[in-house]
Backbone:
C-alpha cells in the first residue's frame, strides 16, 4: 500500500479506463478462445474414446451369441459297447464323429456324393463329437438309444447366420458354399437351428475352433497370476516404503536407492520378462508358463509403482500425528505401526490396485517366460501352465479364422470390465477412507 | 502379516518342488506350424485321457534353440519348424546331450504374394519379384547397383503401373527366410553369372540373393498376418507376403498373385507346381518318449490319416498334405521314433 501514489494515478483515470475499454474486447476474446481450446481438447479426447469403445463393442457383440443345432443322434450299442460293459473308458474309444455325420446324412438322404457329404458334415463343429462323447461317458445308459442333443455348428455357419459372411459375394470367395447355405436354410426352416447366448465363451478354455474357444482358462490364469503379484508386491512394497520414508537415514545411499526406484518404474516391461527368464527359469529352475513365475515377474514390475504410491501416502500423513505418538512415549516403530501406516493404508491400497491393473493388462514380460502359449486345460494351481487375458487377446488376434477376431474383441471387453472394476475400487477406497488434513 | 508372508513363501517353495515331474507334453517352435500343431494337440487332449499338450509359438529358430538346450523336464519335448534343422543346430543339440532326434515332415505350405480383391490380380515371375524387392540388383556382368525401380511397370510393362509397396514379415520370421530362399533366390539364379557366383563367392551370392531392400518399398509388417490382410484391404496398390492358410481363410478379401503362371491353390502347392512352397516339420526328442507320457500317442495322432491325410482335419486348417508314399514313409519312421537326424 502506497497512499502517496494514489492521487497521481487517479489523474489519468479516464485515460486508464479508455485503455481498459480498448483492450477489453480483445481480452474477452482471448478468454473465450482459451476456453474453447480446452473444451475442444476434451471433446477430441472423448470422441476418440467413444470411437475406441464403439469399435470394440460393435465387433465384440457377435461373439456373445452362438449358433447351435438340435441333432437326433443314434448311439448304436453294438458299435460303441458290444460287450455291454457300461465302462466309460470303452465308450470313450468309440468313433463319435461318425454318429454325428450319420445324424446329418439322415436329415438329407438325397445327398450321396462324397464331396457333398463332406460339405454337409462340415456344417457341424468338430466340438459336437467331443460333446457327444462326454455325454455318453457320463451316462452310459444312453448307449443303444437315440438322443436329441444340442451341438454347436461350425464357425463358418455361425458367421453366416450373424451376417458376417453374406451370400452376395461369389461362391468361390466365401468359406460357405451355396449348397451349404441352402442346407442351413432348410435346417432353420425345420426349426432345428438355434441362436443363443454363447456360454462356451465364458466356460471353455482355448481352442483352435472358434466356436469352442473360451476365456475361462485365461481368467483362471489371470487370477492365479494376480494373487502371486499381490502377495509379493504389496508386503514388499509397503515394507520398503515404510523403511525408506520413516527410518532410513537421509544420505547419498538412500538418494541413490530413491533415484533407482523411480527409474525402475519407467523401465519397459519386456525387460522384466528377460530378467524373469534369466533368474527364475534358467537359474532357479522354476517351471515355464506357470502363473507362479508370471506373478513374480509382474510383481517386480509393479513394485516401483507400489513403493512410490506408498511413500506418497506416508508423506501425506501430517508430522503432528507422529510427534503426538512419540510425545506420549511410543517408540518409533509403535508410532509408525499404530498410527502412520493405518492412516496411509488407503493411499497404499490405491497404489497397489493401480499397479495391479497395469499388471493385469501386461503381455510383453510373459512372452519371455512362456505364458504366450496354446493352453487348453484349466490351470489348477500356481505351477500349472496357464495364460492370461491379454495374452489370449494377442493369440486370437493373430489367428487366421475370421471368427476369432470377434472373440478377441469380446475378450478385450471383458478385460476392460476387470480394469474398470479395479480402478473403480481404487476410487472408492480413496473417497471413503482417505482423510484430508 | 508376518506369518502370512512366511506361509506364502513356504507355499511357493513347496509348489516349486512339486513342479519337478511333468505329465504334459511341451511343444515349441514355428508360428507357421503352430495352427496345425495346436489343432492336433486339442484333438489329442479331448479324445484321450492324457493332458492337452502346451504349444508355444517361438519361431523355428527360437524353438530349435530351446529344444537343443538339453534333456530333462525343463526342456521341450517337440519343436515345430518351417525349415529343416541346420547342421549347426544338430551340433548344438549333440553338445547338450540331445542325440536321438526324429524328424517328421508333416506337409507343405505355400507362400503367397497377394493383393486386395479390388485390384487386378498380378502375374509375375520370380525373376521380376527379385528385381522388385532385392536390395542390390545385377547391372551387367559382375556389377551390382542399388535397386533403382520404384514402379512395377519399370521392371516389365505387363506389371501394374503403381509404386512397389510390399508388406511382409520381419527377418525373425521363418516365412521371410523361406520367401527369400524360394522366391528371391529362385529369381536371382536366373542371372547365369550370379548363379556362377555361388561356386566362387558363396557369401556374396547369398547376400545378394537374400538381401531385401530397405528403402521403404518392402515394409516389415510384423509377424501378424491378419494385420497384413487388413492393410491390403485398405490399400489396393499394396501387396502382401504371407502363408497360404491366411489366403485360404480370407479369399473374399485378398487374391494371390500368379507366380510363373501358377495360381497359389491347394492343388498347385500339393503337386509342387506352385514355385514358392516349403515343407513343414516337427522334431521329437526321443530321450523324453519314455519319461513324458503321451509323446508317442501325440505323434501317432499327428501322423494319422484323419489328421494329415488328403481329407484330414489339418487340410481344413490349410495344411497341404504330402503324397501318399511320403506320408507312409514318415508315418513308419515316426511310429518307431527312428533316429533320422544327424546321421
Residues:
Amino acid at each position: 500500500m502506497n497512499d502517496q501514489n494514489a492521487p497521481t494515478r487517479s489523474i489519468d483515470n479516464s485515460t486508464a479506463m479508455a485503455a481498459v475499454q480498448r483492450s477489453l474486447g480483445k481480452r474477452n476474446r482471448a478468454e473465450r478462445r482459451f476456453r474453447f481450446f480446452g473444451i475442444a481438447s476434451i471433446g477430441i479426447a472423448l470422441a476418440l474414446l467413444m470411437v475406441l469403445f464403439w469399435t470394440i463393442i460393435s465387433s465384440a457383440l457377435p461373439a456373445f451369441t452362438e449358433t447351435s443345432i438340435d441333432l437326433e443322434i443314434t448311439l448304436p450299442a453294438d458299435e460303441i459297447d458290444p460287450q455291454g460293459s457300461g465302462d466309460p473308458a470303452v465308450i470313450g474309444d468309440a468313433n463319435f464323429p461318425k454318429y454325428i455325420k450319420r445324424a446329418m446324412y439322415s436329415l438329407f438322404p438325397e445327398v450321396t456324393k462324397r464331396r457333398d457329404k463332406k460339405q454337409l458334415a462340415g456344417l457341424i463343429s468338430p466340438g459336437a463329437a467331443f460333446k457327444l462323447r462326454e455325454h455318453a461317458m457320463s451316462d452310459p445308459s444312453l448307449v443303444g438309444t437315440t438322443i436329441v442333443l444340442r451341438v454347436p455348428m461350425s464357425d463358418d455357419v455361425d458367421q453366416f447366420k450373424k451376417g458376417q459372411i453374406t451370400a452376395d459375394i461369389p461362391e468361390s470367395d466365401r468359406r460357405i458354399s451355396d449348397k451349404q447355405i441352402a442346407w442351413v436354410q432348410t435346417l432353420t426352416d425345420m426349426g432345428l437351428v438355434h441362436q443363443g447366448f454363447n456360454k462356451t465363451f465364458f466356460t471353455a478354455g482355448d481352442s483352435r475352433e472358434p466356436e469352442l474357444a473360451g476365456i475361462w482358462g485365461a481368467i483362471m490364469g489371470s487370477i492365479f497370476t494376480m494373487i502371486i503379484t499381490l502377495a509379493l508386491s504389496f508386503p514388499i512394497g509397503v515394507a520398503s516404503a515404510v523403511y525408506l520414508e520413516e527410518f532410513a537415514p537421509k544420505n547419498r545411499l538412500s538418494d541413490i536407492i530413491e533415484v533407482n526406484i523411480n527409474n525402475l518404474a519407467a523401465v519397459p516391461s519386456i525387460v522384466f520378462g528377460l530378467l524373469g527368464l534369466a533368474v527364475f527359469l534358467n537359474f532357479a529352475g522354476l517351471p515355464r508358463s506357470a502363473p507362479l513365475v508370471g506373478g513374480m515377474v509382474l510383481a517386480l514390475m509393479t513394485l516401483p509403482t507400489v513403493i512410490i504410491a506408498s511413500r506418497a501416502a506416508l508423506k501425506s500423513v501430517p508430522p503432528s500425528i507422529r510427534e503426538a505418538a512419540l510425545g506420549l512415549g511410543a517408540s518409533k516403530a509403535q508410532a509408525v505401526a499404530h498410527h502412520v501406516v493405518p492412516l496411509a493404508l488407503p493411499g497404499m491400497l490405491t497404489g497397489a490396485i493401480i499397479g495391479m491393473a497395469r499388471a493385469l493388462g501386461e503381455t510383453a514380460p510373459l512372452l519371455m517366460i512362456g505364458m504366450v502359449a496354446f493352453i487348453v486345460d484349466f490351470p489348477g494351481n500356481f505351477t500349472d501352465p496357464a495364460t492370461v487375458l491379454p495374452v489370449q487377446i494377442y493369440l486370437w488376434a493373430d489367428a487366421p479364422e475370421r471368427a476369432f477376431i470377434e472373440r478377441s474383441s469380446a475378450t478385450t471387453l471383458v478385460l476392460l470390465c476387470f480394469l474398470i472394476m479395479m480402478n473403480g475400487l481404487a476410487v472408492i477406497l480413496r473417497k471413503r477412507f482417505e482423510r484430508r488434513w | 502379516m508376518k506369518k502370512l508372508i512366511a506361509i506364502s513363501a513356504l507355499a511357493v517353495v513347496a509348489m516349486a518342488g512339486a513342479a519337478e515331474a511333468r505329465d504334459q507334453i511341451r511343444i515349441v517352435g514355428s508360428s507357421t506350424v503352430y495352427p496345425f500343431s495346436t489343432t492336433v494337440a486339442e484333438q489329442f487332449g479331448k479324445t484321450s485321457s492324457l493332458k492337452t499338450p502346451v504349444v508355444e509359438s517361438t519361431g523355428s529358430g527360437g524353438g530349435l534353440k530351446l529344444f537343443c538346450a538339453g534333456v530333462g523336464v525343463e526342456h521341450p519335448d517337440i519343436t515345430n519348424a518351417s525349415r529343416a534343422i541346420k547342421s549347426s543346430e544338430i551340433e548344438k543339440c549333440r553338445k547338450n546331450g540331445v542325440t536321438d532326434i526324429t524328424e517328421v515332415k508333416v506337409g507343405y505350405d505355400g507362400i503367397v504374394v497377394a493383393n486386395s480383391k479390388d485390384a487386378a490380380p498380378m502375374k509375375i515371375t520370380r525373376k521380376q519379384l527379385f528385381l522388385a524387392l532385392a536390395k542390390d540388383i545385377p547391372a551387367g556382368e559382375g556389377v551390382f547397383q542399388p535397386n533403382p525401380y520404384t514402379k512395377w511397370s519399370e521392371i516389365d510393362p505387363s506389371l501394374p503401373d503403381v509404386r512397389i509397396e510390399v508388406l511382409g514379415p520381419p527377418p525373425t520370421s521363418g516365412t521371410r527366410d523361406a520367401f527369400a530362399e524360394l522366391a528371391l533366390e529362385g529369381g536371382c539364379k536366373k542371372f547365369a553369372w550370379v548363379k556362377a557366383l555361388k561356386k566362387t563367392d558363396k557369401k556374396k551370392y547369398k547376400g545378394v540373393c537374400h538381401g531385401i531392400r530397405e528403402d521403404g518399398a518392402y515394409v516389415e509388417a510384423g509377424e501378424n498376418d491378419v494385420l497384413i490382410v487388413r492393410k491390403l484391404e485398405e490399400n489396393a496398390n499394396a501387396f502382401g507376403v504371407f502363408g497360404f492358410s491366411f489366403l485360404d481363410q480370407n479369399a473374399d478379401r485378398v487374391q494371390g498373385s500368379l507366380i510363373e503362371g501358377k495360381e497359389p491353390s491347394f492343388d498347385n502347392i500339393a503337386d509342387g507346381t506352385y514355385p514358392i512352397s516349403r515343407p513343414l516339420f516337427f522334431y521329437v526328442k526321443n530321450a523324453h518318449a519314455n519319461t513324458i507320457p503321451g509323446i508317442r500317442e501325440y505323434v501317432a495322432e499327428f501322423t494319422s490319416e484323419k489328421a494329415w491325410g488328403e481329407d484330414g482335419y489339418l487340410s481344413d486348417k490349410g495344411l497341404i498334405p504330402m503324397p501318399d508314399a511320403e506320408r507312409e514313409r514318415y508315418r513308419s519312421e515316426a511310429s518307431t521314433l527312428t533316429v533320422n537326424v544327424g546321421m
